[in-house]
Amino acid sequence: MMLDFFPEDVKPHLIPEAKGELYYECLGCSAQYPIEKLLYVCPKCNQVLLIHDRNIKNLQKIPGSVWQKIFDFRKMLKTPALKGIYRYHEFIGSCIPLESIIYLGEGHTPVVEANETLKEMVGVSFFYKNDGQNPSASFKDRGMASALSSIKYLIDQDLVSDVIAICASTGDTSAAAALYASYLGPLIKSAVLLPHKKVTSQQLSQPLGSGAQVFEIPGVFDDCMKIVENLSSQYSVVLLNSKNAWRILGQESYSYEIAQDFDWDMKNKTVVVPIGNAGNISAVMNGFIKFYEANIINDLPKIIGVQSEHADPVFRYYLEPDESKRQFKPVDTKPSVAQAAMIGNPVSMPRVIQIAKKYNSLAGCQHVFFVQVTEQSIMDWQLLANKNGHIVCTQGGECLAGLVKAFKNNIVTNKETAILDATAHAIKFSEFQDLYFKAKIPKDYKIKPNPGNINLPSLILPDNPELAPSQKKRLGEKDFQKFVKDISDKIANKLNLKVS
User: Fold this and answer.
1) Is 352 found in the same domain as 484?
2) Are 307 and 277 in contact (CB under 8 A)?
3) Do 240 and 277 lie in a common domain?
4) How many other CB atoms are found less than 10 A from the CB of residue 54?
5) Radius of gyration of the CA atoms of the chain, in A
6) Within 13 A of 271's CA, how many CA atoms are on the CB side?
7) In terms of residue numbers, what domain contains 476?
């Protein structure tokens, strides 16, 4: 589109300039560091970091209504760097030039309304935001587009070279990291650490296919994370887990998209997310805060974080109503079908605590809630969602189970509209569906298949085995017609079809 076609108040802002002044700030001691350094924790106190913009107040000089128009009109541009999460460039990576931005098709995933059947089952009107329709089939691509664009920026400025990126993963992070790193090859190489036999075969195939060096480690994700942290503290590597503050910036785009999808009206809205390593819920809250402070939205939606009873340290922390008495204690995880959220010591817990406190303060009341759900409910609700037109993973099932729990506990009312995070594509976790349907889920998961949810294929054979065609044995026309009639009659009988 030619810029002359756009309104005068929007035209100067459509193509953003790299003029932000970003810096790292420690959540522990408030020390500040330049973003030109590869930092993941504070060198002074070892706490996690957030990225801030010294020019953030300048964004408030533009009226919120004008920002809305800017983002709406940017949808019409054909500039690749502005097609993805960097449509919101000023709120994400405002110091990064457009030529350093990586775009692989991430962001702006569809928001799909639940059908009436599913709404009646749940008791609340809701939508799924299908982040499984990102390039590597999970929401992690948002953070990776941000993190790898920041690395590309440093490479373009001759500040780093011969980059080796590394991450620990339960599956989705490794897939996204390997994909985005491979796009920058040979400028960057990637390595991923996975817990042995705790990643689905579909997820394992992704980093392998993208050319990453994959190391399987005994234990669980938390053990892999400790090794990655140790490597990043001793060697010159780029850590791509959500400990990387650039990951948080990219994942804030989830909030911005929801606001835009609902025409900037967040009143009586509730956003439900699984917690996992706690980076995503931190980013979602922070994103809404930024838009609220810039007057782009007038209301903050409720935020509900969901955890399985098999990995619930954040839920346990907030069970204590007295803030001064809360103590965070990591937990030993148990097997969970929501594998991407099976984390007992989330690295972004300090972010959650600080951002949730600010979020509640801005809202003027408690607006961030945490619920715990059973493994049984996660699996059952995932299957019910997908039987009603969705493509949600087990974490998406966890969100729906969490919404049901929140409604039961009067955290959400039927006057609100919920937006649920389907963090990955259902195909990534199809092994659990297969085990459920075949009643072979290991006992440790504490899931008993509901016969009404089981769906298995039926093998239909002809009465005469000689009339069964194969690739090696093709039937003559007469025998083939007998085969077609025999099989058709059997299927019609099973479907109770009536002759037309």
Assistant:
1) no
2) no
3) no
4) 11
5) 25
6) 30
7) 465-494
